[in-house]
Structures are given as structure tokens and as C-alpha cells.
Amino acid sequence: MSLQVLEPMTEKLNPKFVEISNLVKAYPNPYGDDFRVVEDFNLNIRQGEFISLIGHSGCGKSTVLTMLAGLNEISDGGIIVGNREIDGPGPDRAVVFQAPCLMPWLSAFGNVMLGVKSVYPHASKAEQKQIVEHSLSIVGLGDSMKKYPKELSGGMQQRVGIARAIALQPKVLLLDEPFGRLDSLTRMELQDVIIDILARENLTALIVTHDVDEAVFMADRCVMMSNGPKAGVGEIMEIDFPRPRDRESVFNDPMFFQYREHLLAFLEQRSHIKGETRVHTKDNLTGYMNKAELTNLEQKLSVA
Ligand SMILES: Nc1ncnc2c1ncn2[C@@H]1O[C@H](COP(=O)(O)OP(=O)(O)OP(=O)(O)O)[C@@H](O)[C@H]1O
Asked: Could you tell me which residue ranges the ABC transporter domain spans (predicted)?
């Protein structure tokens, strides 16, 4: 069964499936003027593309994601998803947060069903059940549907969170540090789950992450945000690894080292600069360091 049964996608291969234009988020401050967290943030996302959004803590990554989700009011500028300007949350966009926040009195099946019923109230009971079961199976919980959150590990709970999101059959999947609380093995497993789902369902996705390896491994483009306030897109780096991606060959590819080095160099050196967005392909990457400098920098960033 395909998750597109109820609502077939019509905007295939749209190069500007998501258009974020001159986006601003400003909060009023006690002095009567605005604290502009994000300003002139511009980004177009292709249908089916996977974007990773990376930047220093507090620069405004989650702010951009929640505005795209429709959960945070847009102060200025706008966001178009599939030819429609967004003005609030909608089933075309689903979010997976760091904590899955499951209803403790409902089973995994019940938690996923909750969203399906509200988004597809007119689908038959059999169709709703089929969507829930399918979503739980593709995240690897086919045998644990009847379990309650307290009977599930942190990783399994996050799988339910992912199933709940994809069961809504969104066009855009938004991931806000979804693996931040998980151990590295579970994190890798869930990265693979997400990559598989996106390939299968042709979903467009954006992940906010602090993990440079994750940003490179998962994405088609890494978008690096400049430091706030007034944060915007500092640089964009295209990741030229074929899909489907195989973890071992990606991590052993010399380009992987160069991509992550470039991201780290941005975080260290350029993230305060705001101006014209620089776009990098594998042929024009800059900012290389030698291995010792890189190790030094990684240690510094992990302490910060
Ligand atoms: N309701 C609010 N009122 C005022 N300022 C806010 C509000 N919500 C967020 N901010 C500010 O917006 C800025 C960006 O926050 P945001 O959570 O988007 O950053 P982030 O890059 O996702 O951070 P992190 O990586 O640490 O999660 C921060 O300086 C934060 O203090």
C-alpha cells in the first residue's frame, strides 16, 4: 500500500515546491522596538529534496522550522508550499520534535490513529486502520502496535512520533532535532528509517540538527544559517552523494570529510557574516583545514 492512496500528489518535481521569501521573525522587546531573530531568510526547496538546516545554538533554526510548520506567526515575508501561501498549521506539513510527546493512555496504534482521525475523518474505519498499520510497520513497529508508551524505549517512542507524522500523508516533513535525545546507534537506525521513508514517499523534508555528520549524510543541501540576531542563510552546500545512500560508502568517501570540514569551518569562521548567500558545490568548496586543525576545532565546538 502507498501512503498516497488518499491524496495523490500533483506538484511532482516542482523546483520551488517550498518558497521562503524575505522571512522575518521579530519579537517585541520591553524597550518598544523589535528583537529581529530572523531577517530576510530566503530559500527555495525542490519537491522531494532533503534540506539540513545548521547553525549556532540560538541563531533561529527552530524559529524558521516552526514558521514553516505554521506554529509560529510570521512577522514579515512569506512561505508558499505547493503553490499555497501558508497561514497556519496544516496536514500538508508534519513535524517531528525532539520529544515525541505521546499520549500515555493510548497505545502506539492509538497515538497514530488520533492524528489520522482528525485529518481524515471521512475515510472509512478500515482505511484509517490501514494507514496507521502501514505507518507503524514502515518505522519498524509492526509487532509493537499495541504497546503503550511506558512499554517502549526512547527510540521506539520516537518511531511512533515519526509514524504519527507520516500517517498524515504530509507533503513536507519537518524534523526538529528529532534524534537529539537518542544514543548513537538508535540515532543511526532512525536516520536510515527517515531516509527510506523519504525515498519511498517522495516527501520534501527539512531537518534542524547540530550534528554535522547527520547534516551531510542525510541532506541534498546543507543550509548554514548566519548568527543572530537578524539571522539569514549564510551559505548553501550541495551534497553530491547518490541515493539511495549507503552509510558505509558515504562515510568512507573522501568527499564526506571535505563536506563536514566545510560545515565546521563555516560554524567557526563565517557564521557571523550576513550578506549574499554563497552556494557551494563539491567543486568549489573552500575553507579547508588540515586534520589537526579540524580535530582542534571539533573539540572546541563540542565544548561550546
Ligand atoms: N517567544 C520568544 N520571545 C523572544 N525571543 C524568543 C522567543 N522564542 C525564541 N526566542 C529567541 O529566538 C532566538 C532563536 O531561537 P531558536 O530556538 O529558533 O534557535 P535555534 O537556532 O533553534 O537554537 P538551538 O539550536 O539552541 O535549539 C533565540 O535568541 C531565542 O531566545
From this structure: 18-252
Question: Cβ < 6 Å from ligand 1: which residues?
Answer: 27, 37, 55, 57-63, 228
Closest residue (by CA) to atom 8 of ligand 1?
Answer: 63
**Nearest alpha carbon to residue 101 among 8, 12, 165, 14:** 165
Q: Tell me which residue has its CA closest to atom 26 in ligand 1.
A: 57
pTM of the model: 0.89
User: Would you call 23 exposed, middle or buried from its count of C-beta atoms within 10 A (0-12, 13-18, 19+)?
Assistant: buried
ipTM: 0.97
The range of the structural domain enclosing residue 178 comes to 15-92+174-183+203-304
Bridge partners of 38, per DSSP, are 25, 231
User: pLDDT tens across 109-145, in order?
Assistant: 999 999 999 999 999 999 999 999 999 999 999 999 9
Find the distance separating the first CA and the last CA of the chain, reported in whole Å.
46
Ligand 1 atom nearest 63 alpha carbon: 18
Parallel, antiparallel or unpaired: strands 221-225 and 233-238: antiparallel
Angle between helices 125-138 and 108-119 (to 10 degrees): 130
Residue among 31, 36, 63, 175 whose CB has most ligand 1 atoms within 8 A, to mutate: 63
Q: What is the CA radius of gyration of the chain?
A: 20
pLDDT at 300 over 60: yes
- Least Cα distance to 100 among 190, 189, 185 occurs for 190
Ligand 1 centroid – CA 116 distance (Å)? 31
Q: Domain containing 31 — which CATH number?
A: 3.40.50.300
Cα(145) to ligand 1 centroid in Å equals 36
Looking at the structure of the chain, the number of domains it has is 1
